Structure formats: C-alpha cells, structure tokens
C-alpha cells in the first residue's frame, strides 16, 4: 500500500448529496481550494483533499485505494458490495457511519390497478430497476423468481413503455411514483447517505487524520439533533417535568434568586420537541420554557 500523509475523501460532484455533504465537511472544519475543473479540491485547513465525482464511482475509488473515505448513498454502496460478492471478489469497502441525510428507500411499485398479494405477486413478472443486485438479493430471500430488467435511468416509465410490469426504484416522497400512476407496495432497502471506508484500516498518518475527522463528524451529527431546553420549575415538580423529556441524567439545576421554591433548569435533549411536550411540561408546573438549537458541543 502507498504511504500518503494526506487523506482523500470522495463526494458527489452534482446531485442530491452534493450540498449536504459539503455542509457536513465544512461543519467538521474542512475547507477546500476549488480548482478550475472542480474535480480535485485541495484541503486548506486540514490535510484532507476532496475528489468530486459521480456517486456510482465512489465505492470503486475506495476499493482501488484512490480515496480513503467517501460520502455516498447506502443504496449505491450495498449494490456494489453485492455485485463484487457475486463476482467472487473480496469485500473492499464498508459503511462506517450513517450520516442522517439523503434518506430514501428502494421500493417495488406496481401500476395502480394491479393487485398486490405479497412478494409472490411478482413471480414471473419483469421488474425494471437500476439496482439489480439489491433486487436479486431480496427476490432470493423471498423465494420469488422474476426477470430483472436493468435500466440506468427513468425506471418509472418502464411499465408504460411495455418494458416491464413492475419497477424497483428509489423513493423519498412518492411524488414521482404517483405522477406515473404507480403504487409503492413493498420497501426492500432503507437508505441514507453514509461514510464509506476501506475494509482494511489505514496504516500511515492518514489513520490519525481519519480519527480526527470522524470525531468531528460525530460531533456535528450529535449537535444537529440536539436542543438546549431551559425552563423554571418548582423544586418538587422538577422530576415530573424532566420525565416528560426523557433526559433526566444530563439536567443541571440552579437556584433562582429570592425564590426558594423554584429552580432554573437546563437540559440537552436529542431530537426536536413538539408543542404537545412543551404544553405538558407547562401543565406539570414549568414556566418560561425556551428551546434553542445547539451550535457546537464538546463533551
Ligand atoms: P450521479 O450523476 O452522481 O450519478 P445520480 O443521478 O446517480 O447522480 P442523485 O439523483 O443525485 O444521483 O441521487 C444521489 C443519491 O441520493 C441516491 O443514490 C440516493 O442515495 C439519494 N436519494 C435520496 N432521495 C432520493 C430519491 N428520491 N431518488 C433518488 N435518489 C435519492
Ligand atoms: Zn449515480
């Protein structure tokens, strides 16, 4: 293996994952000098360079050692993992973090008027997809034999063109399916953007850089969901109010000047708070409730 003292990370050049991936990297303290061709971007703040490519190329770049990390949809990673396995190749890349954006699902959809009676409905049908390996894997698990029609794009129009009876495609809102008179009947794979890395651990300086980056990305992801909740509560109601938040261990309480029976409480909580919870807290005795997003956190 070649020794390198700079880490190379691959991300999608143009597409759904481009902006959120750049945002994650910038929040983790990475900034890049944009080159004219925008393919290779030199890292200015850390020894981490960025390669902007098509998402489908990312697993291969990791497998051949051109890149050390990649931000890519789990759908692409798992598809290529199964493809490699089918060819008898050893595993070369793995998912090391789920990144919480680019969420979608790989689903089977049928024309709206076609009945669905479980996976056996698909027996003998032609199913159009860009994910033949994931579909084949699922069909085998279900014990269903069907014909897989590989299409690299515009899968949703295959039934209308008479190329297939069913499709297996990525769905996020379902809008595209509905617009094509298709009905989602079963989810075969859940996806989101993930951080991919080689199966073999990095040995040289890159290992340390990678650790630093992972720690920062973990921090960014934790903070994204975190809320600082502040309120005042009568002493004897604090535990009841905190129970509504399910976060009692991390709360810090301090006395309120001149009001012996009242405490000021601060607590970090994961996940958004709905109005219902705030109203329940108020009913339990809390007042002056304040919910704030968290910018940075170093436990
Ligand atoms: P490229 O030119 O890089 O090959 P692409 O057309 O394959 O781009 P995009 O449409 O930008 O890719 O999708 C990239 C990833 O975004 C998908 O692989 C998937 O993980 C995720 N994604 C999230 N929601 C959807 C959706 N509704 N449809 C397709 N992909 C989605
Ligand atoms: Zn692609």
What does this structure look like?
The chain has 9 helices and 16 strands. It has 299 residues and is α+β, with helices and mostly antiparallel strands. The longest helix has 20 residues, at 206-225. The radius of gyration is 25 Å and the shape is flat. It binds adenosine-5'-triphosphate and zinc ion. Adenosine-5'-triphosphate is lined by residues 12, 15-17, 54-56, 73, 75-76, 102, 104, 170, 172, 191. Adenosine-5'-triphosphate (ATP) binds next to helix 3.
List keywords for this structure.
Alpha-Beta Plaits; 299 residues; binds adenosine-5'-triphosphate; 16 strands; D-Maltodextrin-Binding Protein, domain 2; alpha+beta; binds zinc ion; five-stranded mixed sheet; 3 domains
Small molecules (ligands, ions, cofactors) in the structure: adenosine-5'-triphosphate, zinc ion
**First CA to last CA: what distance?**
36 Å
* Pattern of helices and strands: EHEEEHEHEEEHEHEHEEHEHEEHE
In total, the number of domains comes to 3
Rounded mean pLDDT is 95
Please identify the top-level CATH class of the largest domain: Alpha Beta
- Strand neighbour order, sheet with most strands: 2-3-4-1-5-12-6
Structural class: alpha+beta
Residue fraction in strands: 25-35%
Largest sheet: 7 strands, mixed
User: Which residue ranges are poorly predicted, with pLDDT under 50 across at least 5 consecutive positions?
Assistant: none
Could you tell me the radius of gyration in angstroms? 25 Å
β-strand number: 16
Shape annotation:
flat
Structure annotation, total helices: 9
**CATH architecture descriptor text of the largest domain:** 3-Layer(aba) Sandwich
CATH topology of the largest domain: D-Maltodextrin-Binding Protein, domain 2
Helix content: 25-40%
CATH superfamily of the largest domain: Periplasmic binding protein-like II
